[in-house]
Amino acid sequence: MTRDDLFNTNATIVATLVDGCARHCPEAMICVIANPVNSTIPITSEVMKKHGVYNPNRVFGVTTLDIVRANTFVAELKGLDPARVNVPVIGGHAGKTIIPLISQCTPKAGAGSATLSMAYAGARFTFSLLDAMNGKEGVVECAFVRSEETECKYFSTPLLLGKSGIEKNLGLGKLSAFEEQLVADAIGELKGSIKKGEDFVANMK
């Protein structure tokens, strides 16, 4: 399926589910993994706004699969355990909007291995969020969220998670010139995807 096919299928599904959340559990943490995330997160936000219950600190586009992939590829190239590699991935969750920050890559402590599966990625993000909600400190994950970090309304960056969702947006950090160009190149496509999601909700019956 193309991203457009995905949009046509998933936009209504996400809008319907979020409408239910807005009516029955407006304070819930909403983690959306349904693609295209670059559009389904704006859809989620706009539906919540319609009900007057939007809290940007509680709405997450799960981009963890990109981090899992980046960690795995770097680990394979360097002969490391993927669970010991941490590559922040910023931007969005499609094509050239996915920007792995190799310049900020760090080997990290830990054991076990990561596969390239959506289920693993979704579980990892959810468990991190639950840990943070239960009081664990220093939990950081990247996610596609409402953001002031670039000229895009939504952007994925590392986030410090806490009991109320996003505790602090850790921003882009120091980028190499190459990475700065990748961000610049991603902005146009991201803005279009965001607007597509917003327009979908605006035109909903």
TrEMBL record:
Belongs to the LDH/MDH superfamily. MDH type 1 family. Coiled coil: none annotated. Residues 1-61 form the Lactate/malate dehydrogenase N-terminal domain. GO terms for molecular function: L-malate dehydrogenase (NAD+) activity. This is Malate dehydrogenase. GO terms for cellular component: mitochondrion. InterPro entries: Lactate/malate_DH_C (IPR022383), Lactate/malate_DH_N (IPR001236), Lactate_DH/Glyco_Ohase_4_C (IPR015955), Malate_DH_AS (IPR001252), NAD(P)-bd_dom_sf (IPR036291). It catalyses: (S)-malate + NAD(+) = oxaloacetate + NADH + H(+). PROSITE patterns: MDH. It comes from the Eukaryota. The keyword NAD applies. Keywords: NAD, Oxidoreductase, Tricarboxylic acid cycle. One of its GO terms (biological process) is tricarboxylic acid cycle. It holds the Pfam family Ldh_1_N. The keyword NAD applies. Homodimer. Its EC number is 1.1.1.37. Residues 63-108, 109-201 form the Lactate/malate dehydrogenase C-terminal domain. It comes from Mugilogobius chulae (yellowstripe goby).
